[in-house]
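pls design
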């Protein structure tokens, strides 16, 4: 099993990175290979809404006209057996880097060729709220909406608060192990 982890945090030692690492370690303990991508460190522009209608090549052909690292990352996502979307919670919602990526992803998934390789793919969402810990649940709802449009098989969402991070790291390790054990169509 090959699992791609898309991380919306730039801090490799932060709470979201620790949560994603717990998921990866659990998956690896069950024999999975994991590859983690820090979205803020990649060149991924926000959607340009190319045409006057607000769409473009994404709707017509399932790909994006912007020449950045988005297409290569989507290829990695399509080649993986499962995906993990881990984001810090900012203002009760997805981190800007995760939002930029998922906004473009859902647009390309409106076309069958864009959805091919993503539709039906098992996906787990992790939303980590720091500070007072609010907003994690609302963020999971935002992430669920966009991944549902993409056609992912949404197998789990784990809202995390700074106050329960230690306990959730254990949960995420177990979740990673479980995710690695899934067979196609078994979720």
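designed seq:
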């Amino acid at each position: 099993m090959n699992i791609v982890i898309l991380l919306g945090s730039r801090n490799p030692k932060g709470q979201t990175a620790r949560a994603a690492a717990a998921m990866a370690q659990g998956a690896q303990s069950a024999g999975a290979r994991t590859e983690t991508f820090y979205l803020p460190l990649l060149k991924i522009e926000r959607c340009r809404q190319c045409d006057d209608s607000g769409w473009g090549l994404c709707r017509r052909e399932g790909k994006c006209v912007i020449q950045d690292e988005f297409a290569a990352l989507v290829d990695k996502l399509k080649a993986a057996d499962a995906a993990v979307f881990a984001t810090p919670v900012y203002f009760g919602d997805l981190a800007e880097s995760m939002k930029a990526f998922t906004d473009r992803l859902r647009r390309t998934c409106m076309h069958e060729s864009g959805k091919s390789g993503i539709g039906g793919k098992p996906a787990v969402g992790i939303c980590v709220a720091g500070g007072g810990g609010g907003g994690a649940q609302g963020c999971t709802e935002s992430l669920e909406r966009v991944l549902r449009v993409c056609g992912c098989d949404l197998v789990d969402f784990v809202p995390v608060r700074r106050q329960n991070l230690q306990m959730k790291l254990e949960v995420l390790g177990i979740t990673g192990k479980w995710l690695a054990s899934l067979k196609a169509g078994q979720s």
